[in-house]
Write a structure and sequence with these properties.
Blueprint: E1 8-11, H1 15-24, E2 34-37, H2 43-48, E3 56-59, E4 69-70, E5 78-81, H3 86-91, H4 93-98, H5 100-107, H6 112-117, H7 120-124, H8 137-143, H9 171-177, E6 181-186, E7 189-194, E8 214-220, E9 230-236, E10 247-255, E11 261-269, E12 276-277, H10 279-285, H11 292-305, H12 316-335
Parallel strand pairs: 1-3, 2-3
Antiparallel strand pairs: 4-5, 5-8, 6-7, 6-8, 9-10, 10-11, 11-12
Helix pairs in contact: 10-11, 11-12
Length: 346
């Protein structure tokens, strides 16, 4: 049995108190000393396997109102409180009605018990993953630690100067496609950034959020609702539940009255250390109607920017080859065209 190491647990009564604890405990200078936790579905296993350490853990689940979901009306943005559970987000009537692809993306995460505990704020910040990293401490020590921990070598690409652990969040690509923003709070104040700017292409330092900042809420714009654009989410994994994605595709398109694509946003998950924008594929659709030919051409362009590494399930070469297949499925779903989508793997 894997056991948690000893630490001090400090439940916060407000965001200001949580931010103050992070600051006074030195999160900015030593992020491994103090960490926030909400549902704990990522942090607790990581601490048990000694991937992450903390002398102090700040509990966010006791903060009143932080789990609230505000959906005031069809022309108002939806505000997702950071500690809202994944189940609450996926099952919220306004999310299902206005952002069905987001509901599907969140509903695809793990299993019902973990969605009942895991939070939307935790999922957008979930640690990057890699075959060589997500093992027990004894296993990692036996082959020598990798770059993501305390070693000097990336075992995926031994000659590489960087870590290639990949983004594991399913909500992040869809939220990025919808143009969502995230509100960050610290003892210095607060700031709001586009959620796609929350990430950097680095398997170790994958968040632009400072260690002393907390995700307070996620803001999904009203102009990204189904009244204004069409969206879809497709995910590949070995099993139909529980497993992390080895590829996901989130697409959101704004169509003119005659069906011409006015704007397109496509993001790929699990092929990079951040949700990867497929900008060339999106640009190829702009100004055109969604036909078999334009969709297939755009899907091929999406493959050029995706370089899956041998750090998760299935062979990297095969994962790369199915990128255009899944992009095509996502775009055909947006167009209301028939797809050969397999039910078990979304």
């Amino acid at each position: 049995m894997l056991r948690l190491p000893r630490f001090t647990f400090r439940p916060a009564k407000s965001l200001d108190e949580a931010a103050s604890i992070l600051a006074t405990e030195g999160a900015g200078e030593s992020p491994e000393r103090v960490r926030p936790v909400a549902g704990g579905t990522d942090l607790w296993p990581n601490m048990k396997r000694r991937h992450q350490t903390a002398e102090v853990v700040v509990g966010l689940g006791t903060i009143p109102g932080l789990a609230a979901i505000h959906a005031d009306g069809p022309e108002s943005e939806v505000r997702l409180g950071a500690t809202a559970t994944l189940t609450d987000v996926a099952e919220h009537p306004a999310i299902r009605a206005r952002y069905p692809a987001l509901a599907e993306a969140v509903e695809s995460i793990s299993s019902p018990p973990l969605r009942n505990m895991g939070t939307i704020g935790g999922n957008v910040c979930v640690d990057t993953r890699c075959t060589y990293y997500n093992q027990t401490e004894e296993w990692r020590r036996s082959i020598d630690y990798c770059m993501k921990e305390c070693g000097e070598t990336c075992w995926v690409a031994p000659s590489s100067p960087r870590c290639w652990a990949h983004s594991a969040s399913d909500s992040a690509p869809m939220l990025a496609a919808l143009g969502a923003r995230v509100r960050l709070v610290s003892s210095d104040g607060e700031r709001t950034v586009a959620i796609e700017d929350l990430y950097r292409d680095d398997g170790i330092d994958y968040l632009t959020k400072r260690p002393d900042e907390l995700v307070a809420e996620i803001l999904v714009p009203a102009e990204s609702s189904r009244d204004h654009l069409v969206s879809s989410f497709h995910k590949l994994r070995r099993r139909g539940s529980i497993d992390f994605a080895v590829l996901s595709v989130a697409a959101a398109l704004r169509l003119a009255g005659d069906g011409t694509v006015e704007d397109a946003r496509i993001f790929l998950g699990a092929v990079s250390s951040r949700p990867l924008p497929a900008d060339k594929a999106a640009a190829a659709l702009t100004g055109k109607k969604l036909t078999d030919e334009t969709i297939a051409a755009a899907a091929k362009l999406a493959r050029r920017g995706a370089t899956p590494m041998d750090n998760t399930d299935f062979q990297a070469q095969w994962r790369g080859s199915v990128v255009p297949v899944y992009v095509e499925r996502a775009l055909r779903s947006c167009a209301g065209l028939a797809t050969d989508r397999p039910a078990p793997n979304r």
